[in-house]
């Protein structure tokens, strides 16, 4: 977990000035994670092709390669599409800084998804993915860009003299890089530069790339800083020294060397004195750190950090056999889940997050803080988390029978859920959601109720999982205006169109889920000459033929009266009108109380096309893009089950969210 600088002890004024004086020469870490450019392609994957798992796999392997070598390239091949990935840190970065830079780039590059290509340049590293083998490419006029600073430079002189100094530096720098293993840094007359080609580009490709970069970056003059962001290389000049001391190459004579040696000795002595000062205040710092830990850890409370919820990264790494692919249980929107065995023999599920906690602190600690203190038989129990390692981990109780979705999508029907099992899952899920809405000290809206988030234990009892999108709903609020995130096909119309979130959004999702369980198919699994699952069930309800929608795999082995009641509850929960939907507590009573009279659904559970087009223009997510995720039949649009997120154009009422499912 990255701590703020307030973690360090407050030093006396003289020490502060010493630190200020020697800050530049003794900067211990500079991963250079400022974003120089993010470029995303326009192409999207073919229909019915799941691209995100390929992306995730590529990033996982790159993480291992970068950890070992500070760079790497990898290809993931699938039947209909492949993904090729490349990551490289600039050679002056230390290994630790390289890992930080790569982590930052990996966190930001998913903003390009679902595009099948994207590349990001940070000031310390480069990361790219594409659908073809690009490793040998050096130049591409359509993609090669420059990033210029418009402030006029004056290092070593002004005007033409400055431009001459920069061009001289660039010429020498690029020539040196070509013959020096694709990399060089240099400083002269107050101007500094770095040139690097990707390790997959050969010498001639490197020469061609840097030659083009030299021409392109000349357009930044007389600006004091410029970057050429090319397909096969990176070139930068600046009036500020930005690269690490360990790799700087400068023209020097013996006098300069002697002066450098003297300066090095003086600075070494100063560094030793500073270390002594730090040691003298170490005890004070440790005490001060304890008192400030609540603030320093942000969303994590002090009590959590010292509790048994805090797992060591090494323990979980060993428990999963170092995230052995054979132990992978599944993959969600925020990470992969692995089966692990703790030292005490207990089996757990370990969720390995795709994104760095530092950049995604809200999502990570939202899940920890909301559900670590609540327990219910129909909720997956969060056992703890780890924030100490290179990536953040969540630890859950192990649920052996995986997700409900696998039973619904099993074309081979290896295991067919009988009616009693389906009914128990429906009731258990309802009880779990009702508990979230009002059974604990929090009012929690899950926001992503769907079959893949319903896990089944050894008795096939339902357990609700994945609280990364959940929100705490204050008692005095009528609704929340929040970023739209979830899964199309399960999202309530008022939330999708207006961004207004209430408990009734979960009720709508639950209604869709009920129909899926009873009918044995997903909401987006269309049948010829029919519509969505919701439309199909509604038509059968209107013609008093509801039992015809029950999963044919049951071969009629179900109580018709109970099946009709359950289907009516599903339709009630999925009504377009918020007011017409029951609360989850009412839904539980409808399902479990034999004497409870279930009301008749009065509205079809469809999303009105006119309402969508009238309201969705306020979102930066284009209507054309949204329409591509809708299926239209008989003049009505039905959401397909795809994931997406929307950020409002004003950036205020809807926070930016990137949740990929």
Account of the protein in words:
- It is built from 19 helices and 25 strands.
- It is of the alpha+beta class.
- The protein has 5 domains: 5-25 and 261-296, no CATH class; 35-130, 2-Layer Sandwich (Killer Toxin P4, Chain A), CATH 3.30.430.20; 145-243, Killer Toxin P4, Chain A; 302-397, Phosphorylase Kinase, domain 1 (2-Layer Sandwich); 404-473 and 492-594, Orthogonal Bundle (Transferase(Phosphotransferase), domain 1), CATH 1.10.510.
- The strands form 8 sheets. Strands 1-4-5-3-2 form a 5-stranded antiparallel beta sheet, with helices on one face. Strands 6-9-10-8-7 form a 5-stranded antiparallel beta sheet, covered by helices on one side. A 5-stranded antiparallel beta sheet has the order 11-12-13-15-14, with helices on one face.
- A hairpin with a 6-residue loop joins strand 14 (382-386) and strand 15.
- The longest helix is centred in the middle third of the chain and has 27 residues, at 254-280.
- The two termini are 25 Å apart.
Search tags:
GNK2, glycoprotein, 661 residues, 19 helices, 5 domains, receptor, five-stranded antiparallel beta sheet, repeat, alpha+beta, Killer Toxin P4, Chain A, serine/threonine-protein kinase, 25 strands, disordered N terminus
């Amino acid at each position: 977990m990255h701590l703020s600088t307030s973690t360090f002890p407050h030093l006396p004024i003289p020490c502060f000035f010493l630190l200020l004086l020697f800050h530049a020469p003794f900067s211990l870490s500079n991963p250079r994670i400022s974003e120089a450019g993010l470029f995303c392609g326009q192409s999207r994957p073919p229909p019915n092709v799941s691209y995100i798992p390929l992306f995730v796999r590529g990033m996982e392997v790159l993480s291992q390669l970068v950890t070992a070598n500070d760079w790497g390239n990898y290809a993931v091949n699938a039947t209909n599409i492949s993904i090729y990935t490349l990551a490289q840190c600039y050679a002056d970065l230390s290994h630790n800084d390289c890992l930080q830079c790569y982590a930052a780039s990996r966190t930001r590059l998913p903003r390009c998804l679902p595009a099948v290509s994207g590349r990001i340049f940070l000031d310390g590293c480069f990361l790219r993915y594409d659908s073809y083998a690009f490793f040998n490419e050096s130049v591409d006029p359509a993609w090669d860009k420059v990033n210029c600073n418009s402030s006029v430079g004056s290092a070593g002189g002004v005007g033409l003299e400055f431009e001459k100094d920069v061009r001289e530096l660039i010429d020498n720098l690029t020539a040196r890089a070509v013959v020096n293993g694709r990399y060089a840094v240099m400083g002269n007359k107050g101007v500094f530069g770095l040139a690097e080609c990707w390790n997959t580009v050969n010498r001639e490709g490197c020469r061609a790339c840097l030659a083009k970069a030299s021409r392109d970056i000349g357009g930044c003059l007389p600006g004091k800083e410029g970057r050429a962001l090319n397909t096969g290389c990176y070139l930068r000049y600046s009036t500020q020294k930005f690269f690490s001391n360990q790799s700087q190459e400068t023209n020097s004579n013996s006098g300069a060397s002697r002066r450098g040696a003297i300066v090095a000795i003086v600075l070494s002595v100063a560094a030793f004195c500073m270390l002594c000062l730090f040691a003298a205040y170490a005890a004070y710092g440790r005490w001060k750190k304890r008192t400030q830990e609540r603030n320093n850890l942000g969303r994590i409370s002090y009590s959590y950090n010292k509790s048994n919820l805090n797992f060591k990264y090494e323990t979980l790494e060993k428990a999963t056999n170092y995230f052995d692919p054979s132990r992978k249980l599944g993959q969600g929107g925020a990470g992969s889940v692995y089966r692990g065995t703790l030292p005490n023999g207990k089996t757990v599920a370990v969720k390995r997050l795709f994104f760095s906690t530092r950049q995604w602190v809200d999502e990570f600690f939202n899940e920890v803080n909301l559900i670590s203190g609540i327990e219910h038989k129909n909720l997956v129990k969060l056992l703890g988390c780890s924030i100490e390692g290179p990536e953040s981990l969540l630890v859950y109780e192990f649920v052996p029978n995986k997700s409900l979705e696998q039973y619904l999508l099993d074309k081979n029907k290896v295991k067919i859920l009988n009616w009693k099992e389906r009914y128990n899952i429906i009731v258990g899920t309802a009880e779990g959601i009702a508990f979230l809405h009002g059974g604990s000290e929090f009012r929690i809206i899950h926001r992503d109720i769907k079959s893949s988030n319903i896990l089944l234990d050894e008795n096939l009892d339902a357990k609700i999982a994945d609280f990364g999108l959940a929100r705490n709903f204050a008692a005095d609020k009528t609704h929340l205006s929040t970023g739209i995130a979830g899964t199309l096909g399960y999202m309530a119309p008022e939330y999708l169109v207006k961004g207004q979130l209430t408990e009734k959004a979960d009720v709508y999702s639950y209604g869709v889920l009920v129909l899926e369980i009873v009918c044995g198919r997903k909401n987006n699994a269309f049948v010829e000459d029919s519509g969505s699952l919701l439309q199909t069930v509604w038509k059968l309800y209107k013609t008093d033929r509801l039992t015809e929608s029950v999963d044919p795999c049951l071969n009629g082995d179900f109580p018709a009266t109970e099946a009709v009641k359950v289907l009516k509850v599903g339709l009630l929960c999925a009504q377009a009108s918020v007011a017409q939907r029951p609360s989850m507590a009412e839904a539980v009573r409808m399902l479990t109380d034999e004497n409870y009279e279930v009301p008749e659904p009065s509205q079809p559970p469809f999303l009105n096309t006119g309402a969508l087009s009238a309201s969705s223009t306020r979102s930066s997510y284009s209507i054309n893009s949204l329409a591509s995720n809708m299926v239209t039949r008989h003049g009505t649009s039905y959401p397909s089950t795809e994931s997406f997120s929307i950020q409002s154009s004003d950036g205020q009422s809807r926070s930016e969210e990137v949740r990929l499912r």
